[in-house]
Design goal:
cell projection; Recoverin, domain 1; 6% strand; mainly alpha; membrane; EF-hand-dom_pair; EF_hand_dom; repeat
Length: 199
């Protein structure tokens, strides 16, 4: 004797609705997990608050390559290499200054949160630096990396947001003016773009 099975029988419309419902639940679950991870990541790494999720992921991936012992830390000596791998261009002195600012010795280690803060600081420093370099390169007609201090003074006091003579004097104190009255503008730009140290 055959027993008839009792249960739900779905036609093609019913299957479509059922699968749509399942897909919707999965998408909601993925969104909730992403949102939770995003908030958790930002709580865990305070330096992340100014960075996009894509930037954090990229930084984490590169950081992990240098985290040889899988402790969530890199050697301070590797900081310059990791930063340059991520497209910023600190000098060795700038990398050392970042370490000093966070009270990290050259032979010590730094965690990912500290690294995010350092990367953010370096990126903010390099933004105006590029604009200033572009403007100064336009003055450098011979493309030697040098500009005349007198010409720079004239541009700063007559164009754009005009500076006073005193402001230009203060600015030029930061410049290493050569014996022929010229300034290496890349070095000068780096100096004036150093972020203020927070104490």
């Amino acid at each position: 004797m055959h027993q008839k099975r009792k249960g739900l029988v779905l036609d093609s419309n019913g299957l479509f609705l059922f699968y749509s419902f399942i897909i919707t639940l999965v998408l909601i679950a993925v969104w909730v997990v992403w949102l939770w991870n995003d908030k958790t990541l930002r709580k865990k790494y305070p330096g992340a608050k100014f960075l996009s999720q894509d930037q954090i992921n990229e930084f984490k991936e590169c950081f992990s390559l240098y985290d040889k012992n899988h402790k969530g830390k890199i050697r301070a000596a590797d900081l310059l290499a990791v930063m340059r791998c991520l497209g910023v261009s600190p000098t060795p002195a700038e990398a050392q200054r970042h370490l000093h600012l966070h009270k990290i010795e050259r032979n010590a280690e730094l965690d990912f949160s500290t690294f995010l803060n350092i990367m953010y600081r370096q990126m903010k420093q390099e933004e105006p630096e590029k604009e200033i370099l572009t403007a100064l390169a336009m003055i450098d007609r011979e493309k030697r990396g040098l500009i005349s201090a007198a010409e720079l003074r004239a541009k700063l006091t007559r164009l754009g947001e005009k500076l006073s003579e005193e402001e230009v004097d203060d600015l030029l104190k930061e410049a290493k003016i050569g014996p022929n009255g010229t300034i290496k503008y890349e070095e000068f730009t780096r100096t004036i773009c150093l972020p203020a140290v927070d104490y």
